[in-house]
Design a protein that fits this description.
Residues 1-15 form the signal peptide. This is C3 and PZP-like alpha-2-macroglobulin domain-containing protein 8. The protein is built from two helices and 20 strands. By secondary structure, it is mainly β. The protein has a four-stranded antiparallel sheet, with no helix packed on it. The protein has a four-stranded antiparallel sheet with strand order 11-10-13-14, with no helix packed on it. The chain has a three-stranded antiparallel sheet with strand order 1-2-5, with no helix packed on it. The protein is elongated.
Length: 308
């Protein structure tokens, strides 16, 4: 039995160790012949009468700059038996990596300091070491005039996987005149050793309202109510990223318009009443309006957050 221990470096040199043991476990001092065949079965290298000495021998042979790709065969023959093993020759591909920029789920227009993160990772998850060129500014329009130009903050630093930093809004919008423009971050990473570059651009749009308030009603419920019966409804409260806003104090007001005839005179008046609610874990509020008189002709609902 001739177990083979293989070590190789591609694409230039292939090295292998041939180990032979006798039945007693001591090194066998016989000689062997070693043959190397490419995937097409062509014998490209051979080593005749290789002395094993104490039972192990190292051999090397060069591979061409463009060797045949596939499974190569190494055979060892000691004149009595033959053992073989294979190794694969494949094209070498540089590891690929991606660059990402992460912002908070949402940012209000009056936020002054915004955290951000830039990450460079290989597709298999390991961090990339290299140089990070980072530009932070307000969104740049191709048609912008000189008065609309705002500062661009440029930084060059080393990165090992991820880099956390903060954006000072005053540094890119000193006069706070451009709340409507998105914040733009451009990250360029140059990999150490290879010089491979990867860039990405990410935009952050700021929001004016910290909450979204939406009545959940079907088509009929939106246009009709029945006098003498309670009116039940549902309100959904969400953050700007549409995640549920739990525990938000909300005031719902109903303005009821009433019309009736008194002594041949048509009288009309409005009555407004309000009630406080708190959104549940799913961001919902279930509300109920008390039964209305038969002279009620319309109801207008108004909602506002009491935490703003």
């Amino acid at each position: 039995m001739l177990p083979l221990i293989l070590y190789f470096t591609l694409p230039v040199v292939f090295s292998n160790y041939v180990t032979c043991y006798s039945a007693s476990g001591t090194g066998n001092r016989e000689t062997v012949d070693v043959y190397v065949e490419d995937p097409q079965g062509t014998r490209l290298f051979q080593f005749k009468g290789v002395p094993l000495g104490t039972g192990i021998q190292q051999l090397q042979f060069p591979l061409a700059n463009e060797p045949s790709l596939g499974s190569w065969l190494i055979s060892v023959d000691n004149g009595i038996s033959t053992e073989s093993t294979t190794f694969d020759v494949k094209e070498y591909e540089l590891p690929k990596f991606d660059v990402s920029i992460t912002f908070p789920p949402y940012v209000l227009v009056n936020t002054e300091i915004i955290p951000a993160q830039v990450c460079a990772k290989y597709t298999y998850g390991e961090p990339v070491k290299g140089t990070l060129n980072l530009n932070t500014s307000l969104e740049i329009y191709s048609y912008s005039y000189s008065p609309d130009r705002t500062p661009i903050i440029m930084n060059t630093l080393e990165i090992d996987g991820c880099y956390n930093y903060t954006i000072n809004v005053s540094s890119i919008d000193p006069d706070h005149n451009y709340y409507y423009r998105r914040i733009m971050v451009v990250a360029n990473v140059i990999e150490d050793g290879t010089g491979v570059e990867k860039s990405t651009t990410q935009y952050l749009e700021r929001t004016f309202s910290p909450l979204n308030l939406n009545f959940i009603t079907d088509q009929n419920q939106r246009h009709y109510f029945k006098p003498g019966l309670p009116y039940n409804g549902k309100l959904k409260v969400t953050n700007p990223d549409n995640s549920p806003a739990e525990g938000e104090p909300i005031e719902i007001c109903a303005t009821v318009s009433r019309k009736r005839v008194n002594n041949y005179w048509l009288s009309q008046r409005t009555v407004k009443y309000c009630k406080n609610y708190t959104s549940d874990a799913r961001g919902y509020i279930k509300y109920a309006l008390e039964p209305q008189n038969v002279d009620s002709i319309s109801i207008d609902l108004e909602v506002r957050s009491k935490s703003i």
